[in-house]
């Protein structure tokens, strides 16, 4: 099912203390004179909320056009033109066909085919039947974007498959049409202003977001209205969780397709988090990066719509010290770490510009039904050229405990893609530890930094005692610990790249060398390796002054 969005129908209709005169009452939801027509004798009637472009007034509704052979045409934002066969104004349904064959290919014996409306100047997009091997295709390289479920069998077989689309019930107020009264010459004055503390500044931020979205109109994510989100989430009734930038709700596009809707809080301000996320994720298609399905920029309301992942975040499975029923197992943990590493490596090297995430942590690693990891939450991401060895930042980004030292102070080096490597190392060590906030009130203040405790165990060649049942488990745990410790070296130059991380995780780990002690310059160790440490991943850190 496709949905139409009545464009920018929620703009402010006046400045502060200004008013707009509207004719009183409503007659036919804006259906004024000259709002009825057709493209030919056999074409459907065109009336509110639709109009024939350049032939009927703007206030009649959505733009339709007439082809040279008198077909009624609906042009989608992707550039695709559909032929309208019938419009059901009672049930608000449009029945259309695709004359260009954009969705289907003539070569149905092998696969459904190319999808030209999703192609870019760099690559083609194919829809392939799940039973077909991609080895049948002459491709240099390919990346799986996502699975699509619930496609009608008739759509893959019929040459003239009919697409069904719907539109929401319009109102005069939200459509910005003129409203006419049966009472002559009667007018009312309606104040169309909602109080905002800094109204001019808010409008500037909104204009900035709209300008950004105009540039990204041709990309894949769908733009939803706020009314769409209320319908998708059943009035935001099922909350999945809360984060620093907003609240996440469960939603349904169809009975088969569930999504996660992140409603951004109004306190975000200038819209950087929204622009970062849409601008970054619109071009990303990788099996280990969560897919952005759409977004909402409806007035001052902003939201992001993602694919829904049934197993929540990695945090759920590594936050308990004793819950074996939530433990993923060492082989699966290794696969999760490898998937995260491949996702970060793609962000660093697989796109035109390098994408630095700056907030890699268990809460931002989502797991699908097969526990494949997907990196999420790009609100703090930053784009930079691949040939830049350092990037500029005005403020620290990320979550305390996962932030690289150089992000706090340039005394430790320049901020670069190696800062993401550090965060990944802390994440892996937390996977190895499998616990959170352990013994945070240890007696006599006898505490130790958790990664340092893991290093001490390796130094003394003691086992990492977390759900270890055999030699294979011990080998994987040791490999993950070494990989994590290499990534949290204080000197960014000593941290191996994510490409090297992938190679290390794909190997058996027999030849891995223990990294230098990243804690050698810290305060003297007071806790032995045998005592369980206190975790300090989420506490506040003191500001570090920089040397000019």
Give your account of this protein's structure.
This protein is α+β, with helices and mostly antiparallel strands and 548 residues long. Helix content is 22%, strand content 16%. It is built from 12 helices and 21 strands. The chain has helices spanning 153-157, 172-175, 199-215, 226-232, 272-281, 315-318, 330-349, 405-408, 418-433, 450-459, 471-487, 498-506, and strands at residues 2-3, 20-23, 50-52, 62-66, 72-75, 81-88, 93-97, 113-114, 126-127, 163-166, 187-190, 222-224, 239-242, 246-252, 258-264, 292-298, 301-307, 354-356, 365-367, 373-375, 382-384. It has a 7-stranded mixed sheet with strand order 1-10-7-6-5-4-3, with no helix packed on it. A hairpin with a 3-residue loop joins strand 13 (239-242) and strand 14. Helix 7 packs parallel to helix 11. Mean pLDDT is 71; it is low at 1-32, 104-111, 173-198, 436-446 and 522-548.
Can you give me a brief rundown of this structure?
This protein is an alpha+beta fold and 548 residues long. The chain has twelve helices and 21 strands. Strand 5 (72-75) and strand 6 form a beta hairpin.
């Amino acid at each position: 099912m496709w949905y139409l969005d009545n464009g920018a129908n929620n703009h402010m209709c006046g400045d502060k203390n200004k008013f707009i005169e509207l004719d009183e009452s409503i007659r036919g939801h804006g259906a004024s004179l000259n709002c009825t027509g057709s493209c030919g004798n056999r074409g459907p009637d065109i009336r509110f909320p639709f109009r024939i472009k350049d032939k009927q007034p703007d206030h009649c509704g959505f733009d339709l056009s007439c082809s040279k052979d008198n077909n009624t045409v609906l042009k989608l934002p992707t550039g695709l033109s559909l032929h309208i066969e019938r419009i059901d104004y009672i049930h608000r349904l449009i029945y259309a066909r695709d004359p260009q064959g954009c969705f289907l290919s003539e070569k149905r014996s092998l696969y459904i085919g190319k999808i030209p409306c999703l192609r870019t100047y760099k690559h083609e997009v194919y829809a392939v039947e799940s039973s077909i091997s991609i080895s049948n295709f002459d491709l240099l390289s390919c990346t799986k974007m996502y699975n699509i479920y619930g496609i009608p069998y008739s759509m893959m077989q019929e040459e003239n498959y009919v697409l069904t689309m719907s539109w929401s019930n319009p109102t005069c107020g939200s459509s910005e049409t003129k409203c006419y009264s049966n009472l002559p010459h009667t007018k009312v004055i309606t104040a169309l202003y909602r109080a905002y503390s800094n109204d001019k500044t808010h409008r500037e931020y909104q204009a900035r977001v709209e300008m950004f979205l105009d540039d990204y109109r041709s990309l894949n994510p769908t733009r939803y209205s706020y009314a769409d989100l209320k319908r998708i989430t059943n009035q935001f009734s099922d909350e999945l969780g809360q984060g620093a930038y907003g609240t996440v709700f469960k939603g349904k596009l169809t009975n088969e397709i569930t999504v996660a809707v992140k409603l951004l809080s109004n306190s975000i301000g200038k819209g950087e988090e929204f622009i970062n996320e849409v601008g970054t994720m619109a071009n990303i298609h990788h099996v280990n990066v969560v897919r952005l399905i759409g977004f909402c920029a409806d007035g001052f309301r902003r939201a992001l719509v993602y694919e829904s992942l049934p197993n929540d975040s990695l945090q759920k499975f590594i936050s308990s010290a004793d819950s074996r029923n939530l433990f993923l197992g060492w082989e699966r943990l290794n696969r999760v770490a490898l998937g995260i590493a491949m996702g970060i490596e793609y962000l660093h090297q697989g796109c035109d510009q390098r994408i630095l995430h700056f907030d890699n942590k268990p809460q931002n690693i989502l797991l699908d039904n097969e526990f494949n990891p997907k990196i999420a939450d790009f609100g703090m991401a930053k784009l930079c050229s691949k040939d830049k060895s350092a990037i500029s930042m005005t403020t620290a980004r990320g979550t305390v405990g996962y932030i690289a030292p150089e992000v706090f102070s340039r005394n430790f080096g320049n901020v670069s893609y190696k800062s993401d490597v550090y965060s990944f190392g802390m994440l892996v060590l937390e996977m190895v530890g499998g616990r959170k906030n352990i013994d945070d009130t240890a007696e006599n203040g006898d505490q130790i930094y958790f990664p340092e405790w893991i290093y001490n165990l390796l130094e003394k060649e003691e086992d990492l005692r977390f759900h270890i049942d055999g030699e294979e488990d011990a080998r994987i745990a040791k490999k993950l610990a070494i990989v994590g410790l290499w990534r949290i070296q204080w000197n960014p130059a000593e941290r191996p790249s994510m490409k090297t991380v992938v190679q290390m995780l794909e190997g058996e780990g027999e030849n891995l060398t223990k990294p230098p002690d990243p804690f050698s310059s810290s305060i003297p160790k007071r806790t032995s390796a045998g005592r369980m440490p206190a975790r300090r991943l989420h506490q506040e850190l003191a500001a570090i002054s920089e040397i000019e």
